[in-house]
Write a structure and sequence with these properties.
Layout lengths: L1 E5 L11 H11 L4 E4 L10 H11 L4 E8 L5 H14 L4 E6 L4 H6 L7 H16 L23 E3 L4 H7 L5 E3 L7 H17 L6 E8 L6 H12 L5 H8 L7 H13 L4 E6 L4 H13 L2
Length: 294
């Protein structure tokens, strides 16, 4: 199982030098990917710009958009951004797409929330057509630059439930799930759904990616981790956010080792560690644990 690290873009201590510093550290460490997610009405830096910076200062790890809320954006604009990121990373890009869960972001971008699942299906089809060099409109020119990656940019589905996974089996190369607390049952549930849906669609076995919140190597790691999770999940409402945050416990090396072992046993091909702090000591601690698995 491969192990990637997300940029700590959602952490409250994210600083101007965090993107480049962490991207370089991830590339130098025992990790498989550097990733960033999309959120608009929050304090985080923008996803595409962050990934472009990460692509420019890394050489080895894959660069992952995780998750790109595709129904919020015109597919032609996304196609140009995907092609640019794939070129900047010399063909190391992976894209996970989904519908998101924040009405505030849709409103901020002037995009309707209605029919977002169907719009995702349609947008992925259009995105693939554009990335294959199709014209932006009848009689128009293609959207450039085209990706350089042999075989095209992998597209994963940020899907968790049965219906979403079943829809994704028609167009995705795999799934990118998430377990807030890193519970084995969450990994197993999504992976089982994906295997069954892809088999029912007559397609080869999907790539199975997941992730979870963690915080190591800093003082008061567990309180900081749970405060981070509650703040991040605030869009769910204060009571639910607090309840979910209370279950988040990957705040020491032993717990991280156990959670990684459980994710591997559940069939994950890759797990993405999502840090609750931008303190570089956290990245050092993650690297030590992951390096010991080799």
């Amino acid at each position: 199982m491969q192990i990637g690290v997300a940029l700590p873009q959602m952490a409250p201590d994210y600083a101007p030098d965090t993107t480049v510093r962490w991207a370089r550290g991830i590339d130098a460490g025992p990790f498989s990917s550097v990733s960033a997610g999309e959120r608009v009405t929050f304090t985080n830096p923008e996803m595409v710009a962050s990934l472009a910076a990460a692509a420019a200062v890394t050489e080895r790890v894959r660069v992952m958009a995780n998750v790109w809320v595709l129904p919020q954006h015109p597919p032609a604009m996304v196609a140009q951004q995907v092609g640019t990121l794939d070129q900047l990373s010399a063909g190391r890009l992976t894209v996970a797409v989904g519908v998101g869960g924040r009405e505030e972001d849709y409103r901020a971008l002037g995009s309707p929330l209605e029919r977002r699942h169907q719009r995702l299906d349609e947008a992925v089809a259009e995105l693939r057509r554009l990335l294959d060099g199709g014209p932006a409109y009848d009689g128009g020119e293609p959207v450039g630059p085209l990706p350089v990656q042999e075989g095209g940019v992998p597209i994963l589905a940020g899907a968790l439930g049965p219906r979403a996974v079943a829809r994704a089996a028609r167009w995705a190369d795999g799934v990118s799930g998430f377990s807030v607390a890193g519970h084995r049952r969450d990994f197993e549930s999504v992976n089982r759904l994906a295997d069954e849906a892809w088999a029912a669609a007559g397609r080869p076995a999907p790539t199975k990616v997941s992730g979870f919140f963690c915080c190591l190597g800093v003082d008061d790691a567990l309180p900081r981790l749970q405060a981070f999770a509650e703040r991040y999940l605030g869009f769910l409402g204060p009571e639910l956010a607090a309840a979910l945050a209370a279950e988040v416990e990957v705040a020491d090396a032993d717990r991280l080792r156990r959670t990684l072992a459980e994710a591997e046993a559940a069939g994950c091909d890759e797990v993405v560690l999502v840090p609750a702090t931008a303190d570089p000591a956290c990245l050092d601690a993650l690297a030590e644990v992951v390096g010991q698995r080799r």
